[in-house]
Amino acid sequence: RVYEIIISIFNLGNFMRVVSLVPSLTQTLFDLGLTTDEVVGRTPWCIHPKDKVEQVMIVGGTKTPNLNKIRNLEPDLIVMDKEENPLEIYQTLQNEGFTIFVSKVESPRDVPKMLRELGKACGRDSAGEQLALLCEDSLSQIHSTTRRLRTVPLIWYEPLMAVSPKKYAGAILSEVGFDVIDTHPGSNGYPEVSIDDFVKHEIELILLTSEPHEFTLEEGHGIAANIVKAGGKAPTVKLIDGEDLTWFGSRTAPALARLLEFHTLLDGTN
Predict the structure, then answer these.
(1) What is the mean pLDDT of residues 181-206?
(2) pLDDT, tens digit, for every residue of 127-153?
(3) 3-class secondary structure for the chain?
(4) What is the pTM of this model?
(5) pLDDT tens-place string over residues 208-233
(6) What is the rounded CA–CA span in Å between residue 81 and residue 149?
(7) How far apart are the first and last CA of the chain?
(8) Mean pLDDT over residues 28-43, rounded?
């Protein structure tokens, strides 16, 4: 009986139950040192690290989580994102008394602070500090202040949709030196774009992301051909890893390094 009480106290003091509704932060939680005993709920799009997330229960999607599954898991902490998850889901869970961590990241510059706060929220202060320092170091390695290559990153094909520099995906590209064009400043940050927009803004580079739509070079070359037909100059078309653009958190530091190298190579060939 004494042994059972000791074990119970040990578990209470060292383990917490976390449900994550944000794919990039699920990966970050594991990188902070949490185990599959602690991360107990996730979305189907929480796919990294594969060997660990396969052991974690799916509680529904980022937009449509199953609230009963979340309740039944009795989490100590629910991890959400202001843009990724619906406000009404947050309000419902908050009103029921759950502790919720909400990230609000619009730029790589916001990530170190978020990492420290998330580390503290899940009892991994030291690990959060280390990840934050890594991110700050990666940001400090970027010395160029001149943005080159007038760029539109495309995220959807039919209709064509882009991401603006006001959103994280556009901001991380801006950070490493791309001149990400805000084709529709009054939009929600994910505007529909037309062939005329590419001509009007003299776009030099089209980046085709792998998510949410997995673009092909054939699709990109078709867009470029239509730009030429409309009287514009043929832009360079390149595929890019969508996770490097959207998976903020522990992935931000290595993503910055990869994107900086990518920009350097492209800038040298134009």
Answers:
(1) 97
(2) 999 999 999 999 998 876 677 899 999
(3) CHHHHHHHHHHHHHCCCEEECCHHHHHHHHHCCCCCCCEEEECCCCCCCHHHHCCCEECECCCCECHHHHHHHCCCEEEEECCCCCHHHHHHHHHCCCCEEEECCCCHHHHHHHHHHHHHHCCCHHHHHHHHHHHHHHHHCCCCCCCEEEEEEEEECCCCEECCCCCHHHHHHHHCCEEECCCCCCCCCCCECCHHHHHHCCCCEEEEECCCCCCCHHHHHHHHHHHHHCCCCCCEEEEECHHHHHCCCCCHHHHHHHHHHHHHHHHHHC
(4) 0.91
(5) 999 999 999 999 999 999 999 999 99
(6) 31
(7) 73
(8) 98
Confidence check: pLDDT of 268 > 80: no
Q: Enumerate residues 6+ apart whose C-beta is below 8 A from 144.
A: 176, 177
